[in-house]
Amino acid sequence: MKVPILVVFTVLAIQCSECSAPWSDVLDKFSNKTSHLLDFVRTKGRSVKQFYVDSVQGKLTTYFAKNDNPSTEYDKESFKKQLGIKRKFKDYMAQAEAAQNQVFDSMAPKKVEYDCEDDDPAIHMTTPQLIALHGYHAESHTVVTEDGYILTIHRIPFAKKASSKVSPQKTALLHHGLLGSSADWIIPGPQKGLPYILSEVGYDVWLANVRGNTYSRAHVSRNTDSFAFWNFTFHEVSQFDLPAVIDYIMEIKNGQAKINYIGHSMGTTALFAMLSTKTEYNHILRAGFALAPVAFMTNLKSPIRLLAKFSNDIEYLMKLLGANEFLPQNSVLRWLSKHACEINHYEEAICENSLFVLCGYDENQFNRSLLPIILGHVPAGASTRTLVHYAQEIKNKGRFQMFDYGPSGNLKQYGTTNPPEYPVHEITLPIALFSSDNDWLASDIDVTNLYIQLANPIEHYVVPFKEFNHIDFLWAIDAPTLVYDKLLQLLEKGVGGANNSYGGIDANVIRV
Ligand SMILES: *[C@@H]1O[C@H](CO)[C@@H](O)[C@H](O)[C@H]1NC(C)=O
Ligand SMILES: *[C@@H]1O[C@H](CO)[C@@H](O)[C@H](O)[C@H]1NC(C)=O
Ligand SMILES: *[C@@H]1O[C@H](CO)[C@@H](O)[C@H](O)[C@H]1NC(C)=O
Ligand SMILES: *[C@@H]1O[C@H](CO)[C@@H](O)[C@H](O)[C@H]1NC(C)=O
């Protein structure tokens, strides 16, 4: 506390060296300013120490931008700042542990309520309502998984002006990412939303919803407030949700269709986990298209990596993040977001939203008028366990592995003290990867590592826009030209030929 007071005092002293005020006045002003400063700092929800570190060190603008091998002076400086933040985070966690979590609540910024002045009714609409609003036919389907989760998935069965109301044979299943839902794809509207683009070029479009999100928050026997309900990660999604949804669509299509799977973020993690363990789905699907693919996690910029070192203490992490649902507005997240935001100068509404904070986006590619509707739909819900699972992947650099229950838990669960890796070499489905240089979660190194392990790679496409980030695959202003054009081109490869009955495409046909 000494230092900021000294700073204020020095400022005052300099200001008053010319005003020759009596000493007592200076003292009054000094204490007045100090208390104002303290009030100011407290209303911002920060500790004084924090304020000092921030104001003296300045905004850590390069925190997320630099690597761990500093070469230039500039890099070294930024590296030092990163270490500083890491240290602070460690102290912070230690304090929180000692104080039973209280510290987080006092230190993190206060939760801000947003009154959306915008009266746009779309903010509160469900995915099917939005689809209808955009002039398309929408369907909702209920799928029950083998382990009893009740999922609601959505569908755009045919194009807007389709002459016959019959769904095309060509089928695409879109799977959202972490904290997302089917609405993610719909939000950009008919011109820019991927489902609409696919519908217009003749696809029967299905939109999955993962267990626990807005549309799939139900179970045949488990209460949604119970730990038993939230006791899942992307692993269970890969073992139960994806197979159930795929089987259901196959049934509706009378086994006549081959599904093109298009995943974003966690939607790709679950795909890779499924294809490597339930290998029959390599033959059931037609091809996989992975946007911002996440499997190996060695080289992240997302603040989620700050949690990694605590990932072996699951109990503790669950205590901090919320035991069941990952509560998007909890204080840890606000703490993380404060850093992401100070560093990146994001506006507050974005800073408070877990999706933006954990995943990253590019400001220039972001259409600000979508913000109210985005904030109305995301985060859509995720289990804390899923975040812990990701944190474990980050900690075990380069191992794409099943959930780590600790040595004795693993022995019980898997029969080995270490969790098994997903056997990526078992994936034989033709797969195209779409990545970008600035992706906070899916770095070039990790995506390339995945690509070279695929048995039937279609292509690794790097978005030709340097700042393109994780979320931009969904909402970027130029996503249609930067990403979807290429996606369509790859999707259509081998589809138009005379030998394509769309039911028995040889995997090699669409190989580039
Ligand atoms: C203390 O600061 C407030 C706000 O800046 C001002 O209105 C008030 O007059 C000050 N009091 C003294 C004693 O300087
Ligand atoms: C949580 O899931 C694991 C793995 O499926 C299982 O072993 C454990 O019994 C579950 N715990 C509860 C309380 O449901
Ligand atoms: C931004 O979103 C609005 C609302 O969907 C849309 O009308 C507008 O065309 C979009 N702007 C750009 C540049 O994509
Ligand atoms: C279709 O398949 C047959 C037999 O495999 C082959 O002879 C023919 O050239 C193929 N046609 C096209 C258009 O690929």
TrEMBL record:
PANTHER family: LYSOSOMAL ACID LIPASE-RELATED (PTHR11005)
Keywords: Glycoprotein, Hydrolase, Lipid degradation, Lipid metabolism, Signal
Gene3D superfamilies in alphabetical order: alpha/beta hydrolase
Name of the featured protein: Acid lipase-2
Domain Partial AB-hydrolase lipase: 128-187
Gene Ontology terms, MF aspect: hydrolase activity
Pfam families, alphabetized: Abhydro_lipase
GO biological process terms held by the UniProt record: lipid catabolic process
SUPFAM superfamilies: alpha/beta-Hydrolases
Signal peptide: 1-19
Family statement: Belongs to the AB hydrolase superfamily. Lipase family.
